[in-house]
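Standup notes, structure subgroup. Blocker cleared on the pyridoxal-5'-phosphate input:
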Amino acid sequence: MNSLKNFDNEIYNLATQELNRQNEYLEMIASENFTIPAVMETLGTVFTNKYAEGYPNKRYYSGCEYVDRVEELAISRVCELFSCKYANVQPHSGSQANAAVYMALLNHGDTILGMDLSCGGHLTHGSKVNFSGKNYQSFFYGLDENGYIDYEKVLEIAKVIKPKMIVCGASAYAREIDFKRFREIADIVGAYFLADVAHIAGLIVAGEHMNPFPYAHVVTTTTHKTLAGPRGGVILSNDEELMSKINSAIFPGTQGGPLMNTIAAKAVGFKYNLSKEWKEYAKQVKANAKIIADVLIKRGYELISNGTDNHLVLVSLLNKDFSGKDAQFALHDAGISINKNSVPNEKRSPFITSGIRIGSPALTTRGMKEKEFEFIANKICDVLDDIENKEKHLQIKKDLEFLSKQFPIYI
Ligand code: PLP
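Run returned:
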């Protein structure tokens, strides 16, 4: 980073401080990860200079012979990963990907059915503060008394509201999603079925979670969460006609020139996801999340669904006298990054919440296994058990320091 250091010392210093922060704190925000150096290097390549509106071999500018090949590689690799036919790798983010699918498949005012935000759903699944709830008539399904998706209720609601599209996928759901069941429900009511697998994509491509294909009409994902690639989105489908509409909804519908450096980095990330090493990583992500769940349950904490099948746990603090926000701050003092999260039957605002979400992907990328996760999970409980004791939290941060040294990132 010598040219940055010489040209803009302020940004260089901030990047150095951010690297130190990432190294120092134990990153357990379930949606975060550390991408590989090859992906980071690709983001800084000359592809950042190229305008390439359109799609491979159908561009609006000349000089696209190399970026065409890059985009084709990204498409073929991601299709291989998900066993599907068509992909659009241009969405700048997961939300952009979802917006384009909605635009392609729905008309303004159409009815959609998605997962309730406080049960783990995402803003783009119909929230009233998001385009999905402002432009479309949105309804929600939730969880049963055991914390699992209530598929019977999904069908019951779908029969009444007759949605044009059913959306599944979540930001804070710890159990396997039954895509086959969702497709059966969609078929009964004649709806499109969109599976937003942003959180679990890395597990799916490793065979550690059910694949949404061949069940979903359309699949969207981010590339930066469990997939550990660059920040961005992808849209996938087996239906040529739907994909053609979706391509038009991305460009010229909602985006201009694609970020070709990011698309190249997506291709590099997908190559990593196709490796044997990736399968082992995804297995370890699940094993580590299970250890967090086991320790927290043993220490008397209540988990939504009482466990996990994937990369995260959702802890309910409804029975405690402190909030998700209090827990987030206390854990930060102890050197652990997690996020406050709403839980089913939430009584507090989204800024305060009565839950926390804890994930295993980032620390698994650093090489930590069951032994380290058991140690950290016990420290999390020590902090929560004594939430007011700031001195103790700072001592715990010191107790955890050896892990940062033992498992460094970007040496
Ligand atoms: N879909 C799900 C399920 C998510 O969890 C997220 C992000 O948290 C998104 C979509 C949106 O992704 P982005 O932040 O890239 O817009």
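Discussed briefly. The longest strand covers residues 111-115.
Next: hand off to the docking folks.
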